[in-house]
Amino acid sequence: MECIIITGGAGFIGSHVVRLFVNKYPEYKIINLDKLTYAGNLANLKDIENKPNYKFVKMDICDFDDVLKLIQDEQVDGIIHLAAESHVDRSIKDPFTFAQTNVMGTLSLLQAAKAYWESLPEKYEGKRFYHISTDEVYGALQMTHPEGIEPPFTTKASSGKHHLAYGEKFFTEDLKYQPHSPYSAAKASSDHFVRAFHDTFGIPTIVTNCSNNYGPYQFPEKLIPLFINNIRHRKPLPVYGKGENVRDWLYVVDHARAIDTIFP
Questions:
Q1: pLDDT of residue 205
Q2: Could you say which of 78, 81, 149, 223 would form a disulfide bridge with 128 (CB–CB 3.0 to 4.6 Å)?
Q3: Domains of the chain: total
């Protein structure tokens, strides 16, 4: 039975990925590795917690020895790495924790996967380390067309609606990294470590950079659930800067499906 670890699987995006993989791949053993910080909630996965191919392990990805033992004991074939500190405001108050989790935690996983996979006769054949990152590592784009213009690509997603663009430039994999917050700096550093392990040691890796996610089970400090809750309770709505920022949103179920498409 193929075994896949999904880190941060009790969190917002991770729980959707865990649910999708557990239900879609009954022949795979899916291990949900999560530290259960403030953002992790196993109630997100009540509907699949008793599935025979699902296992939850409470663990800190920074604990290298424990991570290595888990990978060895479970004979892990793939890792989908979502565990991260991800709130910009929190990163400004506590950048050290963000660096520790996002950088050193990723390095711990990489080193443990490398140690186990290199010990196998087949080495890296059939193995995969998939690192989910953020488009915030690229910095910010200028809004040069506040009126909206037609983009040079199709923008219809799960909503079925067509969306206008607000500038000529778009985030692509070829852009240089320009992180502006401790959060995005930590994620940028983790991206570099993943690519370095691929280039230096030959580990099969993937890095994808997603935009803001929204949908069920999102922690209430995030923008959309925060606004909804504040409106419901007649509280003020926080406006950042001059209120001119434009965000791109990705429905979390669409993101989970994309991860499934990219991973194999």
A1: 98
A2: 78
A3: 1
Rounded average pLDDT over 194-200: 98
Question: Residues with catalytic annotation?
Answer: 135-136, 183
Does any domain span residue 148? Answer: no
Residue 253 has pLDDT above 70, yes or no: yes
Rounded to two decimals, what is the model's pTM?
0.89
* CATH assignment of the domain containing 40: 3.40.50.720
> Per residue, what are the HEC states of the chain?
CCEEEEECCCCHHHHHHHHHHHHHCCCCEEEEEECCCCCCCHHHHCCCCCCCCEEEEECCCCCHHHHHHHHHHHCCCEEEECCCCCCHHHHHHCHHHHHHHHHHHHHHHHHHHHHHHHCCCCCCCCCEEEEEEEHHHHCCCCCCCCCCECCCCCCCCCCCCCCCECCCCCCCCCCCCCCCCHHHHHHHHHHHHHHHHHHHHCCCEEEEEECEEECCCCCCCCHHHHHHHHHHCCCCCCCCCCCCCCCCEEEHHHHHHHHHHHCC
